[in-house]
Amino acid sequence: MADAETVAEGTVRKNPDLPVRIVSAAVMIALAVGALLAGAPWFGWFILAVALVTMLEFVLLVIKATPNVSYRLAGILAGAIYIGIAGYMLSRFPIPIVVGVVGAVVSVDTFAYFFGRTLGGPKIAPSISPSKTWAGLLGGIVGASVWIAGWIYFVARATSGDSTMFFDLAEAGQILALGAVTAVAAQAGDFFESWLKRKAGVKDSSKLIPGHGGVFDRTDGMIPVVLLAGALLGAAR
To answer: Has this prediction a pTM greater than 0.90?
Structure first.
């Protein structure tokens, strides 16, 4: 018992922002789940609010990143398309797809955080994001794959009536591949925001969420994964 307490205390000392991050994450999850359960029109308004705040933070970063007016206008237009399409797609997804997408991104972030903090190791692109490691990416792939497997088993198979207990080798390979693509997409969105913040000379997109920074700091990985999910769903039709 003492050893477990020592490990826990060591983890907190190594990650002093962890308690604040956990509380903030719990509040964000509660708000998102509440909006999802409330259904229309509340869920749509929730997504719109998140998209607008994300866009506002994006615009402020672009303005800080460059004094060139043409670059600013081009960046803002690209951001409006990038964020707007993702927000629209997410608002149109069926609830099971929303749960799958959001859960996958949360799993990527959570597993990447703990794998990276615990294992450390070589950085992926230290000039863009000094905290991102290959171990974190591996954790993200593990987290996404575990979530996707659980989502397929409990949600997709339940709605389809498939009662198969286990995945075959081909299905497991597909889940792992999808988990890897999801983790890479989420990390790519994270790297994009990190690059923009570095250009802007700031650490966070804002100070709105204690322990997490701004809303864009939380949605940066969500946006490309939503776009990926939309593309996959469109291709499957």
So the answer is: no
Token pair 């956990």: residue: 22
- CA 170-174-177 angle, to 5 degrees, is 135
Residue 92 token pair: 């149109």
CA-to-CA distance for 130 and 24, rounded, in angstroms?
23
**pLDDT, tens digit (0-9, with 9 covering 90-100), for 17-37:** 678 878 877 888 788 888 888
**CA–CA separation, 24 vs 20, rounded Å?**
6
Q: Give, in order, the Cα–Cα distances in Å from 178 to each of 87, 140, 218.
A: 22, 12, 21
Which secondary structure element, helix H or strand E, spans residue 221, and what is its range? none
Rounded Cα distance, 159 and 156, in Å: 5
55: CB partners within 8 A, 6+ apart? 79, 80, 83, 84
The whole-angstrom separation of Cα 176 and Cα 102 is 18
Which of 51, 50, 81, 93 is CA-nearest to residue 233?
93
Per-residue pLDDT, averaged over 185-202, amounts to 95
Closest CA to 108 of 218, 26, 30: 218
Nearest CA to 183 among 99, 113, 82? 113
6, 23, 107 from 203: Cα distances, Å: 31, 21, 23
pLDDT digits (tens, 9 = 90+) for 48-72: 999 999 999 999 999 999 999 999 9
